[in-house]
Amino acid sequence: YISKYSKYIEKEIREDCVNYAKSKIAFESCDYEKALEYSGKCNFSIPMMIKDIKFIKLQSFLQLNYFDAFKSETDTFRHFLANTTGIPANVIEYDKKVIKYFVRYARIKENNEKSEMELFYEELIKLNSGNDYLLWLIEKVSLWLKGIVK
What we know:
8 helices
């Protein structure tokens, strides 16, 4: 798809779109280092694309247990959300909520607190959210509790 249709994407954003697509593919293929590599090459000026790339980075850092990089990216993401005008306010508020859950997961995971993770899991389930990022987080917490993910 990328090689076939990239020529139809506006020249100014073509390389960013290709890197974004490669980042998504790498992430879905569980190649988190590659996902970070490609997402780091994206230089979008489109706020919603920036937001998506930042989520890929946060998720990849969590998967790799790169907690310091995760904290740094979280700070830049929050700053971005606080200063952008290209994303609807309700989306920004929900993303801030999702980031809080990601941060909480990172803290619990980093400290290896099983009882806290169990409570966190119950809280996430009660949200009954259809948000893709929270559904991803629920899956990760579940796998961590089962001992499948460290």
